[in-house]
Amino acid sequence: MELNDLKIFKTVADLGSVSQAAIELNYVQSNVTARIKRLEKELQTELFYRHKRGMVLNTEGKRLIVYVEEVLGKLEEIQRVFQDTAAPSGVLNIGIVETVMRLPGILSSYLEKHPNVDLSLTVGVTEQLLQDVTSMKLDGAFVTGPVKHPLIDCHEVLREELILVSKSDTFSMQDITVKPLLLFNKGCGYRERLESWLKEEGIIPRQIMQFGSFETIIGSITAGIGITVVPKSSVRRLVDEGMIHGFSMPQSYNEITTVFIRRKDSLLTNTLRSFIEELQLV
Fold first, then answer.
1. pLDDT per position as a tens digit, 61-91
2. Could you write out the DSSP letters of every residue in 76-136?
3. Is 30 helix (H, G, I), strand (E, B) or coil?
């Protein structure tokens, strides 16, 4: 089994297409197909469901991708170990939840001190970002805490208040049974807090509309479509201007913590160490 075969397998799995993987890797398509077949022959099992629109991992393929991501992650770590220098430099892959309003200031301060760092940002929900950090796709991520995971180190960054937001200037719990809830996709920490509160109150929402973008959610709120839950800091200007209205949640559910996570057994490069040190100044 060769590392190149594993890289090809992962690229096909990520893109869902042999032809797209060939373009991405700058290989001829027949070579990619042959490498996948060779890997399947060596493991004595098929790894994909093949259909007209491309390829999707089957059960065995999903088992293999977990090991492949770990192997390739360790390979990248080896390269970073021997390329690491005293001065922070190179690529730093960081994940973020979209509503951390203080993040631009943190990043600006860090990049001003370390101009040789190429910062790459991935936006997502907490659950997906946690998976990306544990699989070493990301060096670290800002997510909703607390996070309890045996492979993860956490650094608290800030605490904020969660509020309900609506176009209407009044709110009652019954509004949730007649108006849609506009929420981030499953895996969002804010959504989990709201759903836990509603479950405790025995309230079933009329409808949940899922969105992947903060701007889309807030735009829909200002249009009067429904109700959402967000950190107060993320909508302070709109509330102050009267475009939307904020409403308190119970104290047991309204405090949200943003933490920075990293995989504890991965290499702590000078670049990542300096980033974490910057967070401690917040």
1. 999 999 999 888 888 777 766 665 567 778 8
2. HHHHHHHH--SS--EEEEEEE-TT-TTHHHHHHHHHHH-TTEEEEEEE--HHHHHHHHHTT
3. helix
| CATH class of domain segment(s) 3-81 | mainly alpha
* pTM of the complete model: 0.69
Among 3.20.20.70, 3.40.50.410, 3.40.190.10, 3.40.640.10, name the CATH number for the domain at 160-254: 3.40.190.10
**Measured between alpha carbons, how far is residue 119 from residues 10, 41, 144, 155, 223 in Å?**
24, 40, 21, 19, 35
Are 260 and 279 within 8 A, CB to CB? yes
Report how far Cα 253 is from the mean position of its chain's Cα atoms: 22
**Structural contact between residues 170 and 267, judged by C-beta atoms closer than 8 angstroms:** no
